[in-house]
């Protein structure tokens, strides 16, 4: 994971040199290079390799996906959305550069992502590049991330059902993880069956990622407060532990992990090992 993350970090650094307009590029670089686990780009590279592709071909897509992820975080943190002061342990983009620059830098990251995919995949057939562009567009827009965000915003302060919570998480979290894997597999030359198996794996680990996030929210805040009830159980934010209890949420995480593993059983075990370990990493991570 760390060797893949290093390759992606280097490519991200090179993709956005510090140039005029300086403040805009500083703002883009600030959030993009501020750390982050790089889970999505790593999944993208691993999926490309699993179907027999050259990992180097997937680097531009891995970078594009991290740019999209980062711009969704900078938007999410804005005062008109979550109004957060900290992200990845540092002041949020708008706290450092101001809201106007953050909105523009986020737009520039989003458009640069598509520019990278359309211009840097010269060794890949145009048909596959086009499929990646369609996959990314539908993942982000009004049927994807944006739909999840608007559903999340309109659920604030309301009791919501498990189905509504799942809708939010599928759109806000799973879809981009799924797209990272699907795009890696498309660029790696995967056939339809392989791409669809990996899509299902992606959907499972996307939901796994969110359930674990919700569980960590409870367990970490319990540790921090030295109490048995975490902040999540007392805040009004809907989460899996809040809707179904901590133990059932843990069972659900195990089910998603098992389902993800099942989708990988179609592939050669040695080649699938990195994605199998990534699923375990997502399930057992501590942050
Ligand atoms: C305007 C096109 C457009 C999109 C923005 C604001 C928005 C729409 C969507 C919000 C999406 C959002 C904040 C989803 C949360 C996803 C999530 C689980 C983030 C945490 O991911 P990690 O743990 O974070 O991988 P790091 O920092 O490690 O990268």
TrEMBL record:
Lineage, uppermost ranks: Eukaryota, Viridiplantae, Streptophyta, Embryophyta, Tracheophyta
Cofactors demanded by this protein: Mg(2+)
GO annotation (BP), single: isoprenoid biosynthetic process
SUPFAM superfamilies (alphabetical): Terpenoid synthases
Organism (species): Penstemon smallii
Name assigned to this protein: Uncharacterized protein
Record-level GO cellular component terms: cytoplasm
Sequence similarity: Belongs to the FPP/GGPP synthase family.
InterPro entries, A to Z: Isoprenoid_synthase_dom_sf, Polyprenyl_synt, Polyprenyl_synt_CS, Prenyl_diphosphate_synthase
Molecular function GO labels: metal ion binding; transferase activity
Keyword Lipoprotein among record annotations: no
Keywords in alphabetical order: Isoprene biosynthesis, Magnesium, Metal-binding, Transferase
Coiled coil: none
Pathway entry: Isoprenoid biosynthesis
């Amino acid at each position: 994971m760390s060797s893949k993350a290093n390759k992606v970090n280097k490519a991200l650094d090179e993709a956005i040199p510090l140039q005029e307009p300086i403040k805009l590029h500083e703002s883009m670089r600030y959030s993009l290079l501020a750390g982050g686990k790089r889970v999505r780009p790593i999944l993208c590279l691993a999926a490309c390799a699993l179907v027999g592709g050259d990992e180097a071909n997937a680097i531009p897509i891995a970078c594009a996906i991290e740019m999209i992820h980062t711009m969704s975080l900078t938007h999410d943190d804005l005062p008109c959305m979550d109004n957060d002061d900290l992200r990845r342990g540092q002041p949020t983009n708008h706290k450092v550069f101001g809201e106007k620059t953050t909105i523009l830098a986020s737009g520039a990251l989003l458009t640069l992502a598509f520019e990278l995919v359309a211009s840097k995949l010269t060794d890949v057939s145009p048909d596959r590049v086009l499929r990646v562009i369609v996959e990314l567009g539908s993942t982000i827009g009004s049927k994807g991330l944006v739909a999840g965000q608007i559903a999340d915003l309109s659920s604030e302060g309301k009791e919501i059902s498990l189905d509504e919570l799942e809708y939010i998480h599928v759109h806000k979290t799973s879809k981009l993880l799924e797209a990272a894997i699907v795009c890696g597999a498309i660029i790696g030359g995967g056939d339809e069956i392989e791409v669809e198996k990996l899509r299902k794996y992606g959907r499972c680990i996307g939901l796994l990622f969110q359930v674990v996030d919700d569980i960590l929210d409870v367990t970490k805040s319990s540790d921090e407060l030295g109490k048995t009830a975490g902040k999540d159980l007392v805040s009004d934010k809907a989460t899996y532990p809040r809707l179904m209890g901590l133990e059932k949420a843990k069972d659900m995480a195990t089910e998603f992990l098992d389902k993800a593993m099942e989708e990988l059983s179609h592939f050669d075990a040695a080649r699938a090992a990195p994605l199998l370990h990534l699923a375990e990493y997502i399930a057992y991570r501590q942050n």
